[in-house]
């Protein structure tokens, strides 16, 4: 069964993962975010319960 022969496909998988891990991923992680998260305190809003007219 040819699909069980890992000879060409295993090398292709390894090369693609190594390319991603060593070349593409550091380039992507070096970009600064355009919308960085803020460390401000979260303000909670006071909500009032809804008064249902039929109860």
UniProtKB/TrEMBL annotation:
It is a single-pass membrane protein. InterPro entries: ATP8_metazoa (IPR001421), ATPase_protein_8 (IPR050635). It comes from the Eukaryota. Its main location: mitochondrion. The lineage of its organism: Eukaryota, Metazoa, Chordata, Craniata, Vertebrata. One of its GO terms (cellular component) is mitochondrial membrane. It holds the Pfam family ATP-synt_8. The gene is ATP8. This is ATP synthase complex subunit 8. Keywords: ATP synthesis, CF(0), Hydrogen ion transport, Ion transport, Membrane, Mitochondrion, Transmembrane, Transmembrane helix, Transport. The keyword DNA damage does not apply. The chain crosses the membrane at residues 6-24.
């Amino acid at each position: 069964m040819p699909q069980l022969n890992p000879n060409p496909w295993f090398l292709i998988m390894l090369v693609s993962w190594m390319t991603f891990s060593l070349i593409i991923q550091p380039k992507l992680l070096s970009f600064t975010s355009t919308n960085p998260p803020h460390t401000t305190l979260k303000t909670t809003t006071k909500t009032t319960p809804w008064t249902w007219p039929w109860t």
